[in-house]
TrEMBL record, chain B:
One of its GO terms (molecular function) is NADH dehydrogenase (ubiquinone) activity. It comes from Fluviispira multicolorata. It is a multi-pass membrane protein. The chain crosses the membrane at residues 6-27, 39-59, 79-106, 118-137, 143-160, 172-192, 222-244, 256-276, 282-302, 314-333, 345-363, 383-405, 425-444, 464-485. One of its GO terms (cellular component) is membrane. Belongs to the complex I subunit 4 family. This is NADH-quinone oxidoreductase subunit M.
Length: 543, 532
């Protein structure tokens, strides 16, 4: 009796729900599952790999079933994001996920980058330590988080992505429980990263307090001035936290330790993809224009951050002997170069050139640092981790291809044509000069010469010096590793290809971002009227 | 058919050495196997044959760019295209480099002993970059090749150089990069100035930038001129920026020093194409100071060369002196001076190349570059002495050698521009004779005191061949100057006119061709007939 009643009640509820389309409020459009498939696939992959690990008897050993699944998933995700062409930019989940050209290109880069990391780490002994099923799962989760970050059109979506990435990375950095350096890196990264997340959250709270929304496209309502301390402080805190994640000086102090302590494959992942995604988030926030009127304050902030970062990165890199620490400082300098694009975007949020230069530099930097750290992992194969520069002496004759690949990537960082980095810097300079940031451009040019010196010093060790007692030891165990050779070759070809033919993909984009308005076109007329009503009834808190 | 070849010939000249380099890297083999050297040699000879097509089909009586090719390179909105072309001045420089590369490549058969594949690949890459610099009409393309030419040199000196090679190569590279980044800033400024002046249409075609640059206010022109000229001045080198040169020459491998005759010409070419043509008013303003620096370079270089005991340092300072002549000719800003400079570029490359080959022959046999280690070589190697004397004659600029005509034209040009500086530069000719004759005396003549020098082995066939070709070239340039000068004249006349009128080079070019500026693609037999 009661069960019958229950059944009929359930049927009624379902009927009501079907009639009133209640899930429209909760569930996204069906198109979402297709367009956001790269993210969803990675999340499914993360869960699958974790489950596969349960059946494994030796948890410390690489779990190949998980690896196969992960590679397949990344490949599928990359293929999907390449195939899917977005006709009209679309916003889902209340602009929590924007699917537009920027998102799809980011999905492609992130999926390919993750695939690259997975492939490369299966080919070295240190990389194989990363192939435990739970670590693969975390890697997939963090790359899903990166995709969510790149696609986010409002703060909540961004923050979920950021935390998904960051928490997975804290664990990944600290997987070597017995290594002192690994633990140091993990704890530093965790404490400072958590603090940065808190700062970002505080900034968002203050922004919410002043305009009553955290949607990026609504940030133009912000009034950034001394009279409106909430907005001012909110924006400052938000950008400080983001600068931490991008390792812009003076928020860079974690980078050298974390880069040094983490597994080299993972460092490559962090240095390229995390930075890439944060740069995209910067672009999304800045291109919505924060507040009306001129943005001299913001421009000045990025000017100072950029100059400081370039100076610190170029000077401190000179004194470090550890290859990975040196590259960490190089990445600090590169974060400073990103600031050129941020500053020009801040001074003119509609500037297409600034967006093009930012996108092309982000992708080029991702390719170069992924390649550089992969080569370093190759050098570390069967050897001590965290190599010193002197230990590379004589590599040019012992491992000519690895040395050649590293040379290409270092020339890329230095911005010497025909490697990709040249066009990256060239377009940054073009957009910065166009926005009148002459001083910062000159700082970039001058300090590029300084940082060139430490890139050259690595090449000097590899090519010009004979093998010494220390380096001989290192080369003892190294054998030809055709897998790593292929991976490095792919990265070398990619960076030379971009360097010779230019970053076409970044320039051909039109950078239209999905907004709520586009959502209304997709949705029914009914929803549209509701939305407009809802927009009109937004309560504005006292500013 | 010929038209299609003419369209693609320059791209072929750029790409072919790179392909050959890849082939060499892919073929396995030990250092002593000859196959790699044969391939490299064949590639440079083929390259030389390809470049003869330019000479055969070049139309001499016009200043327009020929054999030009325009392809889209970067997306259209940036206005940066792949544009290559040659006119009178770079035609002869391209030919010089292909001839020279083929000659220099022969040296690798004996002088190169370790890591052969890498060296040959870098050498071919260098050849490609040099030709790229000479034929680029788009400034971004030019900049890419200009930077690219630094990389092979960096590794060639760093890996195959002498004892202090690392210091020398870092110094060379960082000097070069600082200069070229300054140039990059100036070029980016021009790029935007062009967009501002043309309603937001971007272009980095140098012919468009000529128009923009000439219209800029004088102050701006001045700064841009200084940035660009400094970049080239470091690489020429002009007097106070020459300190990298002796270090480089002392430490570099033999092949690089032979090539340096051509490599230094990249910068003097840049001075003509960029500093003079882009900023005519600034060039007039700065002509005198630069001429003064050049005269200091001539005299200082010659005097210091006299006091050196190391042959390679003598050559370094002699190059400083000779390039001073070239610079003074360029900045006398008249056709005669420019003609002389361009002619002297060829002569200096050839005579310095011949001398370097001769010194290298001694070094390979005796392992020394010190003057005191030699003496009386003429008694042991009479043919060596014969070639040495010819090369020395070429260097001293005796009549009937090419250098005589070059220096003569330069001196006439500089007298027209500034008699005082012209007469001071003439002193340089005398000093130049002093140090080279002194070196000749010390090496060839004098008593044969050292035991080792008595047992010195004779010259290889390829060395004799190289020296014969270069000696013939020295005399050919001395007698058949008219043919070459006719090729360069239209362009240089145009440059002189644009400087006199302080107008853009390309508008002068348009004036001489009934207002038709640059049918830059489709240079073909039609065009040829149109000119005739």
């Amino acid at each position: 009796m009661s069960s019958n009643f229950m059944m009929s009640r359930l049927q009624e509820v379902v009927k009501e729900a079907v009639q009133n389309r209640l899930w429209n409020d909760i569930l996204p459009q069906p198109a979402f599952y297709l367009l956001a498939a790269p993210i969803l696939l990675l999340l499914i992959g993360a869960l699958t790999t974790m489950i596969l690990g349960v059946f494994k008897t030796a948890p410390e050993k690489p779990c190949y079933p998980s690896w196969y699944v992960a590679v397949f998933i990344c490949f599928a995700s990359a293929a999907l994001s390449i195939i899917l062409k977005v006709e009209t930019p679309t916003a889902f989940l209340g602009s929590g996920v924007l699917i537009d050209e920027i998102s799809t290109i980011s999905f492609t880069v992130i999926a390919i980058g993750t695939l690259f990391t997975l492939m490369a780490s299966s080919m070295t002994t240190i990389g194989k330590q990363l192939l435990r099923s739970e670590l693969i799962s975390l890697l997939l989760m963090s790359s899903a988080g990166l995709m969510i970050m790149c696609a986010a059109g409002e703060f909540l979506g961004f923050f979920i992505g950021l935390e998904l990435t960051s928490i997975s990375l804290y664990v990944l950095v600290g997987y070597q429980r017995k290594s002192f350096q690994g633990m140091e890196a993990a704890i530093k990264y965790f404490i400072l990263g958590a603090a940065a997340s808190a700062i970002i959250l505080m900034g968002a709270a203050l922004i919410y307090a002043s305009i009553g929304t955290v949607r990026f496209s609504d940030f133009r309502q912000l009034n950034i001035s001394i009279e409106h301390p909430f907005s001012l402080l909110g924006v400052l805190l938000l950008f400080c936290g983001l600068s931490f994640k991008l390792a812009i000086a003076p928020f860079h102090s974690w980078a050298p330790d974390v880069y040094q302590g983490a597994n080299s494959h993972l460092t490559g992942f962090m240095a390229s993809l995390v930075k890439f995604s944060i740069a995209i988030v910067f672009m999304r926030i800045l291109s919505t224009s924060l507040g009306e009127g001129n943005h001299t304050g913001l421009v000045a902030m990025f000017w100072i951050l950029g100059a400081f970062s370039i100076v610190v990165g170029s000077l401190f890199g000179l004194v470090h002997n550890s290859l990975k620490r040196m590259l960490a400082y190089s990445s600090v300098a590169n974060a400073g170069y990103f600031c050129l694009a941020f500053a020009s975007l801040a001074s003119n949020p509609t500037s297409l050139e600034a967006k093009q230069s930012l996108m092309s530099y982000a992708v080029i930097y991702a390719v170069l640092s992924m390649g550089a750290f992969t080569v370093i992992a190759w050098f570390e194969d069967n050897n001590r981790e965290d190599l010193l520069k002197e230990e590379l002496a004589g590599m040019g004759s012992k491992k000519p291809f690895a040395a050649f690949a590293l040379t290409i990537f270092l020339f890329g960082f230095a911005g010497i044509p025909p490697v990709a980095g040249f066009f990256g810097k060239f377009f940054l300079l073009l957009s910065a000069v166009n926005q009148g940031l002459i001083g910062l451009s000159i700082i970039l040019v001058v300090f590029s010469c300084l940082s060139l010196y430490y890139y050259l010093s690595v090449m000097v060790e590899m090519w010009f010096k004979p093998a010494t007692r220390y380096s001989a030891q290192i080369n003892q165990n190294s054998e030809t590793n055709s897998g790593m050779l292929t991976m490095c070759l792919i990265a070398v070809i990619a960076s030379l290809f971009i360097g010779i033919f230019g970053p076409r993909w970044a320039i051909n984009l039109n950078y239209t971002q999905a907004t709520e308005k586009n959502l209304r076109i997709v949705n029914t007329a009914e929803v549209m009227t509701e939305q407009t009503q809802a927009d009109n009834t937004v309560t504005h808190y006292p500013r | 058919m010929i038209d299609e070849i003419s369209q693609w010939i320059l791209s072929l000249l750029i790409v072919f050495p790179v392909l050959a380099a890849l082939l060499i890297l892919m073929i396995p083999g030990k250092d002593d196997s000859r196959i790699h050297r044969h391939i490299a040699m064949g590639a440079t000879v083929l390259e030389l044959i390809f470049s003869l097509h330019l000479l055969a089909h070049f139309v001499p009586n016009t200043a327009q760019f020929q054999f030009s090719q325009i392809e889209t390179w970067l997306p259209k909105s940036t206005g940066i295209k792949y544009i290559v072309g040659v006119d009178g001045i770079n035609l002869i420089l391209v030919l010089l480099s292909t001839i020279f590369c083929a000659i220099v490549m022969m040296t690798t058969y004996t002088s190169l002993k370790t890591k052969v594949k890498g060296f040959l690949a870098l050498f071919l890459l260098l050849e490609s970059a040099i030709i790229g610099v000479f034929v680029s009409v788009d400034v971004v393309l030019f900049y890419v090749f200009w930077e690219l030419s630094l990389i092979p040199v960096y590794f060639m000196i760093g890996i195959w150089g002498g004892k202090d090679r690392i210091y020398a190569t870092l110094k060379l590279f960082i000097y070069g990069v600082i200069g070229s980044l300054l140039m990059l800033v100036a070029l980016i400024y021009l790029y935007f100035a062009h967009a501002n002046a043309n309603g937001g249409v971007y272009s980095s075609n140098i012919l468009d930038l000529y128009v923009t640059a000439a219209a800029l206010p004088f102050n701006t022109q001045m700064w841009l001129f200084l940035a660009v000229t400094l970049a080239f001045g470091i690489k020429v080198p002009i007097f106070p920026f020459h300190t990298w040169l002796p270090d480089t020459y002392e430490q570099a491998p033999a092949t690089y020093t032979l090539m340096s005759g051509v490599i230094l010409k990249l910068a003097t070419y840049g001075l003509i194409r960029f500093s003079l043509c882009l900023f005519p008013s600034a060039a007039i303003y700065f002509a005198k100071p630069i001429m003064i620096l050049a005269v200091i370079g001539i005299l200082y270089g010659a005097l210091i060369a006299w006091k050196q005991t190391n042959i390679r340092r003598i050559m370094a300072f002699s190059s400083l002196s000779h390039l001073g002549f070239i610079v003074i000719g360029i900045f006398s800003l008249n056709t005669i001076g420019l003609q002389g400079s361009l002619y002297q570029m060829l002569n200096h490359a050839i005579t310095a190349g011949a001398l370097f080959i001769l010194f290298n022959i001694l070094y390979e046999r005796r392992g020394s570059f010190e003057l005191d280690d030699f003496g009386g070589i003429a008694k042991v190697l009479p043919w060596y002495a014969f070639f040495f004397v010819i090369a020395a004659m070429g260097s001293v600029a005796l009549p009937s050698t090419g250098s005589f005509i070059g220096e003569w034209l330069i001196l006439i040009g500089s007298f027209q521009a500034n008699p005082v500086l012209g007469s001071l530069a003439t002193l340089g000719v005398i000093f130049g004779a002093v140090y080279i004759l002194w070196a000749t005396y010390k090496i060839l003549f004098g008593p044969l005191t050292k035991e080792e020098n008595k047992k010195i082995i004779g010259m290889h066939k390829h060395e004799v061949f190289q020296l014969t070709v270069l000696s013939i070239l020295i005399f050919v340039l001395g007698f058949a100057s008219a043919g070459i000068l006719d090729h360069t004249k239209p362009t240089l006349v145009n440059i002189e006119r644009s400087i006199k009128n302080k107008s853009a080079y390309s508008s002068e070019l348009a004036n001489t061709h009934n207002g038709i500026l640059m049918p830059i693609s489709k240079f073909s037999s039609e065009f040829k007939q149109g000119v005739k």
